[in-house]
Amino acid sequence: MKPLRLVTALAAVAIGFALARGQDERAVAPLVTPPAPPAPLASNVSDWRTLVGGAGPETVPVLDREGLPWVAVADFARLLDATKFWRGDLRKLELRARNHRVLLTVEDPFVVVDDHTVRLDAPVRSENGELIVPVALADSLPRDSTLARLYYDASRHVVLRVPPVGLVTGPRIAVEGGGTRLVFPVDRADEVVIASRDRAHFRIRFSGFYAGELPAGFPDGSLARAIRPIATAGGSAFEIEVAPEASGFRLVSDVTGHRVTLTFERGPAAGLEPFAPEGPAGPRNLRVIVLDPGHGGADTGVTVEGAVEKDLTLQLARILKGEIERRMRTRVVLTREDDRELSEDERAERANRAHADLVISLHFDGLPGGRAHGATAYCPPATFGSTQRESEGQGMIALLPWRDVALRHAVAARELSEDLLSALELRAQGPARLREILPYPLLGVNAPGLLLECATLTSDVDRRRILEPRGLSDLAATLADGISAYQRNL
Amino acid sequence: MPRRVFLFALLVAGLAWITWLATRPPQTLEGRNLKPDSMSTGFKSARLYFASSSGESLMIETREQLESQNFHDRVAALVAELEQGPEARGLRTLPRGTTVLHVYIDDRGLLTLDLSRPFRDGFRGGSAAEYLAIASLTRTLAANLPEVKRVMLVCGGQPIPTLGGHLPIDRPMDVTDLP
């Protein structure tokens, strides 16, 4: 029986040994089954926010550590649209974006980008549970269409993802001889237009987004006196104040050199384009103004505590009609005189049939739950809208659908918008905002026009002001001021 | 005698098994983590555009999402996150109950997004609310789905010319149409 006992004992030892190993395996099992969210990055989740102004590219903040710019790896991955794979045991983070791989190791300055290794100025760090990496890594990424391009904007201390339409950076200015040259570094030098040739409001528009800094001042003798960015639909635009002694301008696009040169000349020179197709100087001839009271009938618009938008727009239109006719020799036509619902085609037809010189669609805004207040104007964009894209490839003739005919009057519509918003700001009825979007009530309207949200009814302050006994009369007087300014065309 | 031989053979087999257990190469944690299966699912930061509290602009909120290979699921997950609203500051931009019914993308990157009826029927507000709803949808989809170039919105299978009577949405839109 001794051998039997020996076998039994050995079997017991073996089983115990095996069970012990099984315990070990169960102990590590949670580490190998479903991957948990990358622990070092978790603290960064859901609390990173930034305000996005206009349609600007997405940005992330840059951290300053020992004089070097750094960026959080989670932000970096987000800009690259990369998926993160964290290997906690190896302290490695792999970023995968399309067919590209970036492998980062904590406390290691070497980063593997696809099939080559990059040495950074400093190792990847873990700071408060979050990985950070020198911004210089952005320069080591491959340049192809499958991977987002990142740009370090030192002036704003951010890293931004370059949008598909590319970037425009601040111009360099040089005064030579009688001319003044502004050189804009751009990614797409062929996508630039002069939106307005008015010396006082000379506007140049790029398809790319603006990043960088504008010059703080201009050299002596410069024909450009001031420059400022202006809101635009897509891309970026600048308004330049040009000296009256400038005789013309020249625009040269260097596609291979990635720059656009805008030159203003003092005297006659070859290839100069003239200023001012903005129409004859002096007062505009406004024979017919069409006021379009928004909504109507079953479409009440915004309704807040007794303030009904469709009623307010109609009352305002009636008062404004009297105010305009009292100040100017102008015929004012309302698209509706009573509480009825009109289709957009009917509104456009009434405006076009009246041969309107300008059209104002009157509305009151509302944003439930928001702190929004003030006025907003929507006017047709000058360029780079969907219409332009659809007309690409059609040779010298670009067809404009009748639906978008208001785009023909975009420059005048913007000037009208700015005059109206300025008047509202001056009368403390702002803040005033301008958005270049073709509004629905202007579809098919062949005249300069805009949709104006005169105030925000969901704002207690705005609503009280509008519902005061003289609220609408004061508002009408303010709008008439703006229309008069547009008519004077100073 | 045969019984002793059997027991001896059993003993040898047992010892051989123990020896194999003791001498086989150890399975390290690193080795286990590098298994392909454990690396097959990644996390992605979804960038969601909500309205700022002032209602004057959009703001980004980032959330971690499991990466999905199914395009419809990715679109539906993004819209569901938007419908839930922001987790801290900011305002919801989509009416409650908005869901994705169907999704179709063509080879030119035009995404046709069919949303449920609450998207249209539940809309309240003026042009600000309308702009923010459309812009947050368009930007969120474009920011998270590189294959999406333009977005065409339909509701309950029907085209909608406008949401609140201020902005046209009868055509495909991209982010440059919504400054």
Mean pLDDT figure of chain B: 83
Overall number of strands of chain B: 6
Mean pLDDT of chain A: 80
What does the overall shape of chain A look like? Answer: globular
Name given to the CATH homologous superfamily of the largest domain in chain A: Zn-dependent exopeptidases
Q: What is the CATH first-level class name of the largest domain in chain A? A: Alpha Beta
Describe the strand arrangement of the main beta sheet of chain B, using strand numbers.
3-4-5-6
Overall structural class of chain A, as computed from helix and strand content, comes to: alpha+beta
Question: Which stretches of chain A of 5+ consecutive residues score pLDDT under 50?
Answer: 13-55, 384-395
Strands of chain A, total number: 31
CATH architecture of chain B: 2-Layer Sandwich
Q: What is the topology, as strand order, of the major beta sheet of chain A?
A: 27-24-28-31-29-30
CATH topology of the largest domain in chain A: Aminopeptidase
**What share of the residues of chain A lie within helices?**
10-25%
Assembly state of the chains shown: heterodimer
Which properties best describe this structure?
heterodimer; A: 490 residues; alpha+beta; Aminopeptidase; Immunoglobulin-like; Copper Amine Oxidase, Chain A, domain 1; six-stranded mixed beta sheet; five-stranded antiparallel beta sheet; 8 helices; 24% helix; B: 179 residues; GMP Synthetase, Chain A, domain 3; four-stranded mixed beta sheet; two-stranded antiparallel ribbon; 6 strands; elongated
Task: Offer a quick outline of the entry.
The complex is a heterodimer of chains A (490) and B (179). By secondary structure, chain A is α+β, with helices and mostly antiparallel strands.
